[in-house]
Amino acid sequence: MADISASIIQGSAIGPASYVVHASDLVSTTAGNSLCKYADDTYVIIPASNHLSRCAELDNIQTWTNHNNLHLNRAKCVEIMSFPKQGVVVP
Length: 91
Hints:
Blueprint: H1 15-22, E1 34-38, E2 41-45, H2 54-67
Antiparallel strand pairs: 1-2
């Protein structure tokens, strides 16, 4: 029989709320970047002016997950870039 190494069963009703509370001490490392947490997902919002901080933010999350007995699946980490439509002036 395997040892239980976590306190919340995946797929449980309390899991998403528990993660948000548990992850309250997870903060971004660079001013201007934001972390949005929902259920068991964390989104890092990085403006173009901070694009060089991507690796530092992922390393920070990796360190946090290791410290909190969680697992970061880097294979599921993706980068999404957004650009304004052509002809649209962004102030």
